[in-house]
């Protein structure tokens, strides 16, 4: 690994490297307008048949929903995400109505599409000076019940959004991990022609 693990091997826009997932947040409030601008970016993601399967549920700190949402996270994630400004739960609709069809059928690409929307969200937040941190560590069954998510929707991730805080505010074990992470080389991930990865 090089001294700075966050260097692109090929020419790309800086935004892709600038985005990273911290755990130290400042606990400042976020306006609904700002939060919705991140979800707006997600809305413009591509999806199969333009079916737009993604769904976003959110709570902002200092609002009545905040404690309810925090309670969905596992203990580890709650320990740092409690200082975030917003929490978003990302779900997707598992069926869709194909063009010309009258009935819903399984949407085979809803997870792929929704991952793309999350990427838009994270990049827009980063471009606006905010930070996001995706979390698999939340209670899916409890989230379904607590937020009244109906059948036919899958749950994917929770996301903490906030302004970058001082890493000294984190528990000691987490301070060392509060750095942008490296990536595997592209040659391990992409091949021309046959799969030889
Ligand atoms: C779907 C998803 C789930 C994740 N779950 C957690 C989590 O539960 N707790 C956590 O601290 N980080 C979690 N992360 C953060 C990843 O570890 C992080 O994005 C990854 O190490 C890459 O680092 P970077 O985002 O700073 O580039 C998750 C990220 C994603 C996209």
Give an overview in words:
It is a single chain. This protein has 197 residues and is of the alpha+beta class. It has one domain (22-168): NADH Oxidase. It has seven helices and six strands. Strands 1-2-6-5 form a four-stranded antiparallel β-sheet. It has a two-stranded antiparallel ribbon with strand order 3-4. The protein is globular. The mean pLDDT is 96. The structure holds flavin mononucleotide. Flavin mononucleotide (FMN) binds at residues 20-21, 77, 133-137, 157, 180-181. Residues 18-163 form the Nitroreductase domain. This is Nitroreductase family protein. GO terms for molecular function: oxidoreductase activity.
Number of helices: 7
Distance between the termini: 20 Å
Order of helices and strands: HHEHHEEEHEHEH
Largest sheet: 4 strands, antiparallel
CATH class: Alpha Beta
- Return the domain count: 1
How many extended strands?
Answer: 6
Any idea of the CATH topology? Answer: NADH Oxidase
Report low-confidence residues grouped into runs of 5 or more: none
The largest sheet has its strands arranged as: 1-2-6-5
CATH superfamily: NADH Oxidase
Shape: globular
**What oligomeric arrangement do these chains adopt?**
single chain
Strand content: 15-25%
Structural class comes to alpha+beta
């Amino acid at each position: 690994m090089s001294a700075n693990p966050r260097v692109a091997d090929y020419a790309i826009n800086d935004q892709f490297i600038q985005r990273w997932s911290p755990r130290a947040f400042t606990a400042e409030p976020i306006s609904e307008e700002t939060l919705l601008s991140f979800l707006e970016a997600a809305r413009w993601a591509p999806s199969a048949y333009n079916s737009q399967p993604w769904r976003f549920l959110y709570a902002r700190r200092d609002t009545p929903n905040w404690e309810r949402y925090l309670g969905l996270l596992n203990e580890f994630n709650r320990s740092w995400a409690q200082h975030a400004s917003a929490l978003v739960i990302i779900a997707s609709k598992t069926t869709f109505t194909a063009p010309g069809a009258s009935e819903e059928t399984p949407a085979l690409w809803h997870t792929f599409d929704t991952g793309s929307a999350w990427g838009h969200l994270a990049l827009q937040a980063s471009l606006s000076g905010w930070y996001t941190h995706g979390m698999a560590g939340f209670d899916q069954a409890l989230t379904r019940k607590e937020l009244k998510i109906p059948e036919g929707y899958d749950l994917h991730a929770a996301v903490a959004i906030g302004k970058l805080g001082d890493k000294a505010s984190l528990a000691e074990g987490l301070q060392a991990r509060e750095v942008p992470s490296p990536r595997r080389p592209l040659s391990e991930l992409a091949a021309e022609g046959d799969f030889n990865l």
